[in-house]
Amino acid sequence: MTSPALAVHALSKTFGPKLAVEDATFAVARGDITGFLGPNGAGKTTVMNMIVGLTDPDAGEIELLGVRQGSRRRDLRMLIGYLQEKPRIYPEMTARGYLRFFADLYGIPDAGARVREVIERVGLTSAVDRRLGNFSRGMQQRTCLARVMLHRPELLILDEPTLGLDPNGVADMRAIFREMKAEGVTLLFSSHQLAEMERVCDSVVFMRQGRVLATGRPAELLPSGVSAGSLRLELYEPAAQCLERIAGLPEVERVRQTGLHRVELLLHRPGADSRDARAQATRLFSQAGYTVLSIDAAAPSLEDVFISLTRPENPDRQEPAGLVH
Ligand code: ATP
To answer: What span, in angstroms and rounded, lies between the C-alpha atoms of 153 and 302?
Structure first.
């Protein structure tokens, strides 16, 4: 059996009094796209920094591409690409100049051709000679992604690659991920854009408050992680009228407006199946004085699982199959 692209075992890190990462254990299979999920401050960046060697762990082990990390870390640098959160760009440089600079720094053979290749891969060919300072956020992000791909890494670790991107930018990023996967690259990326990114993940790792809560394939996590997903309701009254009232109910996890008379609702404890959840939702709206014209249930999304897992105050939540103890 081939070793995973990445395995971390019992990783811990403290910054002064702050326990940033506690006993984190998970693995990333070769060729997979793995989403690294968790609320702000969960410890994702710290784990990523430890994996690539920017931060020393206090305890635990890291195995990268089959090699246990220690003195041989240096040997692996050319096999890994790391995109940091909010990477630095040089506004006066053109995209081509910027990438050429790094290609030369890495000693990449035939640098000009490789720069053209990566620029094409991230869809920036027509803008290659424009200054980075004039690029949109999405274009800058794609340029930085091109930079970490220059040396053809086997494993790409990306911290919030979709931060600040609009839905089109996120869709472009997803397409790029799929192309890289098709070439055999392994990807681990952190994101808050769950709804947008879940379609691209082969597996996910959930973190909260420094601990890994669950790992696994989305299909393994979803059915038992959340018994019912969001509900879509059409109301007689304008949706805006009822949002505040409904959001304040203890049974309601999340409600958001999706149209003039439409809302999406996620219940705190949705019941055994979608029938129960729909009945409960209809009752809630009716008791609050609103008329439900139609209601249907969406399949649970990763976002639903994420909300249920990362809610700190729910002691009796139903736990998914891949839960890590
Ligand atoms: P985000 O999604 O906001 O980037 P994250 O999941 O990446 O969050 P980390 O940035 O790893 O989380 O932070 C985990 C915790 O460790 C936070 O409470 C953070 O304030 C703390 N922390 C991280 N780096 C340091 C540091 N260098 N010094 C002190 N505390 C730190």
So the answer is: 28
